[in-house]
What does this fold into?
Amino acid sequence: MKQLIECVPNFSEGRDLAIIKQITDVIETVEGVKLLDVDPGKATNRTVVTFVGEPEPVVEAAFRAIQKASELIDMRQHHGEHPRFGATDVCPLVPIANISMEETVGYVKKLGKLVGDKLKIPVYLYEFAASKPEWKNLAIVRSGEYEGLADKIIQAKWKPDYGPAEFNAQSGATAISARNFLIAYNINLNTTSVRRATAIAFDVREQGRIKREGNPITGKVVKDKQGNPARIPGTLKSVKAIGWFIEEYGVAQISMNLTDITITTLHQAFDEVCEKARARGIRVTGSELVGLIPKQAMIDAGKYFLSKQQRSLGISEDEIIKIAVKSMGLDELGPFDPNKKIIEYLLEDTATSPLIHLDLKAFANETASESPAPGGGSISAYIGALGISLATMVANLSSHKRGWDERWEEFSQWAEKGQKIKDQLMNLVDEDTHAFNAIMAAFGLPKSSGEEIKARQLAIQQATIGAIEVPFKVMEISLESMEIIKSMAETGNPASVSDAGVGALCVRSAVLGAYLNVKINAAGLDDKKWVDEKLKKGQAVVDRALQQETEILVQVNQKIDR
It folds into this structure.
């Protein structure tokens, strides 16, 4: 599972497109980083850039971009509407997938040290990376902006986290942070009234509304003990919201920033606005996602709405996302293409998994071709995926069988387990081919000298171990699916019991087929002790699979014969 970080640097140049392109060009020189968006603003004289990748490449790309900006942007000549204090004004890192905020802070510190040490630019850390509680707030860190930086930076309390405590006239300072993913999200209303939309926004946003005596609009403002206006908080934490009218669509919207989707999720925001709108006699007609979103946020939304319908959650990822789109009306104002809106899909490299992206006919043709791969290992993984898919189908059919409504969660849990195993086996279809190709590449290494012969032999042995481990994984994961198949044969929809039986036959074939690949590749390995242990474990998996297949088919045939 790849760790993914998003980087959203803001550069103090929004008018000279040639300068902006030079900065984004250096980002794209880093392998493993994908540039997703470049958004220049003339009035603000500021460009927001978005790119994504694994942590180390992202840090390198961010450093190169900050370096290039320091060469091209002179803050002494900069003017714009947006607050700023540096050529690279801010550079937040955002954890996207399989990485914690704590780990992300570590990469923030690494980037900050690089910028401070190598570029001699003062660096302040803010939000989750802040070294002082008051520096969590970017507005405080950036107070005084560029014009006040010369006097500010020489004060002890404003000593930067990295870099010299000296005024850098050309580049200013840079604020680097780790922050949560921010989702810009608009919810459409069946009204043209901005005032009513604003009232709903005040109902839900964390800041809420100013408290007044009597009339909530014209009444006297209530003050707190410090003399500041008292507030009635809204119902959603980590949410900013306003109401506005969109001329293009002729409707009012609630425009929201979800600043921490671990606290308020997309679907929670949608449902809460629906409730508050209904209380004011207004209907939500759909919504609009501005920019990109992590896949998990869409998966969580889809599963949330499926649960509300008491439907199985064990359906494909594509179907779960489709449910999310339809439930929140994300396609009301225009098509919603997951491949263009979901970060992980934008980063997906189909070249590394060509087989599972083929259709059935193309896959069969590729298998039948004179190329030795895909071979028996890939086919075994695919047969196993088909077997567990049949059991998952039985679970999903059972989850909404008439009269079994109270059992939907039971079958949903089985279906979710089945989907997980299916996805693992589908990935192994391509992994097996990669393992075979690695052996072929090792055999193709030069062998002119003694050193080359040793290196070649070592590479062959290492590749052979990989070619054994992959089909062994197919065996173990396929065996896991027998539990689900057996349960579906015993307790699932009786009308689909034959499907459970076919699933058992497929999985048994997957285990036996993968074991053949383990054995043939093991013959080429020098470590005979390791081989004997692996074959012993493999035979135990085979024996267990055959036993479970027999038990399942007895159950299946008994039900069919009745």
Q: What stands out?
A: The chain has 17 helices and 13 strands. The chain has a mean pLDDT of 93. The chain has three domains: 4-178, 183-347, 350-561. The first strand starts at residue 4 and ends at 7.
